[in-house]
């Protein structure tokens, strides 16, 4: 469907490319300031030599339609519009720069972008490998799901009652007792955080979290104007939080089970201590529990399981276990919180996909989900051991790490502070995508979040070899 | 799955209910200030007489666990917690009241709530009747959709490339020429507005819109701190907007085809005039085009079709035509805008359901979608005529209306200003849910948005009879 120059045209290939780029600008698709695709990308799309593309771009630069910016690419020039026709355009760049939401960090934008390309080896990604997803079984289950017309209309504010009832039952295995009224279905854990930021906190509130933190790599609270304050779970936690909180509203965000990015599991004592401190200071806790099904061995129960005061907002999801494409997660919380967040969700996107909810309900209620988890844990464990063997053999002198207890990640620490943007870009040049520690803790130049869950064993081997070359 | 008292217990039914309610409070599901379900709802859940529930609630009130608030129901009392055990709870109500996002208007919350109940006749709802949804055909299509593992992982920031390519082709029929890079898949049109509010406007920006307006019934811009300014499409539009805009950023929101709630279709001249004025003032236009496939007769082309300057952000969706439960819509816009909104969407919910995207791609590309639209338009037309006949026979002396040109609605105007909250609640008492004009224009006490798309013909007849009784 993408445009290509035609060998049959009376125009040369170069002329056709020049006309096509002009038409993109003319029709308003590429406005002033748009960065155009790279020569390599265009050459691939047009199925021509890169030199032909280069000549076409040079011609357009000479005409004042395009301009190069050192090191960052080729852009639609400011006066392109005057060149083409006498019309004014909204200044989109100005709109974007002055608007409310923070952009993703450049490194994360690059990660999001390069994760799309098949030739890139994803060494840090927070996603299961396609070969670990039960694609064919899901396809099979689509054939037996029966829909009723009610279920594909707009959903009730809290999401499918059927799914919420099934989740109540499922959560009992995590020692969490709740009822359908206390569950809100969301489009993944990140949306849960977004709703909490908009619905439960005033601007300038304090969000406590550990360092390194997943919350540094996404912006739901930062974009809503909250202060992110790192705290450690040490004996002074209570005093520290009391001092830092002052009179402000606050909450504590944590991933106590298979912490992202470190993979650490809190002890029961650490969980109880945090709970008691937060209870005393009346600080709500967000317990992000999206990895717990991937524990290789059972650990201590979730904080929510001993929450007798409605203090904990508990978040679960199937994105790390069944399929991220479903976009289904849930929040368990006291009724006023659930009603409030459901009200905002209705104002934001009118609920999550009814089809995705049907699929998740089917997988959990039939036991397909838990059977899949058994296999998945085995496969992840096998992959963890494979990577740990490579590390043992080749990285012992330059890095340290803890043996994985489950999930996707090994939090690999290099002895030297080598994990900087240069390393990220150098590896990207070799088509290896890493998640550097500095996206989880801006001052950290020692760690990478190494994922054994996505790339194939062969790719893991190759990528680790490249990594070793750069790290030595 | 819901708890019920047991006839076999050594406790009386009343005692069991008291214990159960206490346990809800104790475990933190019902925190201080929670409104508990009505006696009628509880009696239905427990399968007991309402008087038994009443006695249990009286007992809990006497114990200081619950308290009544005049006319608004029974709530968990402030000191319930002290009564039960010596623990503190976060003050959720305070959190909620001071937080960023505006709650839905009470009337709209009630609409969202009562739309869930089967016994309620929905006379104003913005949704197709279950009998108009192609449920069985969608179920059939699930059986033939084949998934590949890539497609059920996290999607690319802009959404499924396959769907975007299919949409490019589909949009040609609306005379809109675009490319996959200029499309963003969103979870319905409302999310598109939400992303635009967060990603393209600074706080305090101006959003121009017509009165009455769909935007008064939802808050994506208001919650982000924008000024909503009503303007009319009159000869002074240019001067008015120039004056009102001042130096601020602004945009113009419109539904030029089958306007919500009035059903009005703009003439080509009106569209061109708005476009030229906005072009001159560099005001971007949001063209909300989610109803156009439901036109009974073709009208003038979309504004986007003559947008040569990348001025128009065009929004489409399948929620009004195929199934709202899919939660799939799209924005067509210049590249910098799409990249920006995709970046925010990735930060908000990591993309829309891959399964829903597969279903929509299948329906549009195979032509199923357009064949369904032919039937749907016929059925809607039949329903419109049915309602118009009733209006002709019974409402001529008290109200006026324009014949429907498509979509779901008739904007019924009563001669007297009778459409107030009283009327809304009186009809709700008779299990008839209306969308009063004041949710689209706060000063309007004359209109209701009458939908012929949801209730059955019989229900429409009954509900209109009730409406007539109250209106006379």
TrEMBL record, chains A, B:
Pfam families given in the database record: Aminotran_1_2, GntR
Keywords, sorted A to Z: Aminotransferase, DNA-binding, Pyridoxal phosphate, Transcription, Transcription regulation, Transferase
Keyword Cell division among UniProt keywords: no
GO MF entries: DNA binding; DNA-binding transcription factor activity; pyridoxal phosphate binding; transaminase activity
Requisite cofactors: pyridoxal 5'-phosphate
Recorded superkingdom: Bacteria
Residue intervals of the HTH gntR-type domain: 11-79
Keyword DNA-binding attributed: yes
Family designation: In the C-terminal section; belongs to the class-I pyridoxal-phosphate-dependent aminotransferase family.
Name the UniProt record assigns to this protein: PLP-dependent aminotransferase family protein
Organism: Lysinibacillus telephonicus
